[in-house]
Specification:
two-stranded parallel sheet, 7 helices, Collagenase (Catalytic Domain), 6-stranded mixed sheet, single chain, alpha/beta
């Protein structure tokens, strides 16, 4: 009965959900400066510790848009479980005036993110990834989060709040938890962004996303239509295929392309 319920929900989402190309930047690869790299371009820098022994996740947020502590705590746990950083992973919060509280493009995220950056992504022995929590919405208003280059993600809390259904199932907090881990999963190269998995777990209709609804990389996670799940238990973890891909990338058994740094 439970499986039938989930299949029914999945079919409902399939009927209502648009394609999620915006999740990886609606202007695509051609809009990314070469020096910024593509999403997944710093995957090996995260998975390996031969140069970058520590990692900082820089959270730049507009006043009133501080992320939920449950989201950032969960993100740190997920990164610690897959990234080789013996000197630790630190979350750094900075209130920022982005001077844009309306509509954001992928280029806006990159440009205003660059202006807000405290340090470059590759500085000394510390790898830094940046997450923006701005006011306003993405230019595709169905998109809740977007990865725009090798180190930069934006999460749109206004859209997340709007995605919460009247029953608060899932709640805005639960949605934010999943979307944040999902977008950083793209910075890790998931799914098949900078490699080809030996497992067939990429959704053919939604490139860069999982076909497993129990994976946080499932293609439906980052859209406003996530409210159609009618379930407060959204996936927040990488599934076994995701984890096997990351292990293979780390040990070199899976070829990794488009890297800004290699061990």
């Amino acid at each position: 009965m439970e499986r039938l319920r989930r299949i029914g929900i999945g079919l409902l989402v399939l009927l209502l959900l648009p394609a999620l190309s915006g999740c990886l930047g609606s202007d695509g690869i051609l809009g990314i400066p070469e020096s910024n790299g593509v999403p997944g371009g710093l995957t090996l820098a995260c998975l390996d510790s031969s140069k970058y022994t520590s990692m900082t996740v820089e959270i730049d947020y507009e006043a009133g848009y501080l992320p939920e502590s449950t989201s950032t705590d969960m993100l740190k746990q997920r990164l610690e479980s897959v990234c080789d950083k013996p000197d630790g992973i630190n979350i750094q919060f900075t209130e920022t005036d982005f001077s844009n509280d309306e509509t954001w493009s992928a280029n806006d995220v990159r440009d205003l993110g660059d202006e807000a950056k405290a340090v470059s992504p590759q500085s000394g022995s510390t790898l830094t990834w940046q997450i923006l929590f701005p006011a306003g919405t993405y230019d595709d208003t169905s998109v809740l989060g977007v990865a725009v280059d090798a180190s930069t993600v934006a999460i749109f809390k206004d859209s997340i709040d709007d995605a919460e259904n009247i029953f608060r199932r899932p709640s805005a907090e639960k949605i934010e938890n999943s979307v944040l881990v999902h977008e950083v999963g793209h910075l890790l190269g998931l799914v098949n962004l900078v490699y080809t998995s030996p497992a067939e777990h990429e959704d053919s209709s939604h490139p860069g996303h999982s076909n497993n609804e129990d994976s946080v990389m499932y293609w439906a996670i980052e859209s406003s239509s996530i409210a159609n799940f009618f379930d407060n238990d959204l996936p927040t973890e990488f599934d076994s295929d995701d984890l096997n891909d990351l292990s293979g990338l780390a040990d070199g058994s899976i070829k990794c392309t488009d890297q800004l740094w290699r061990p």
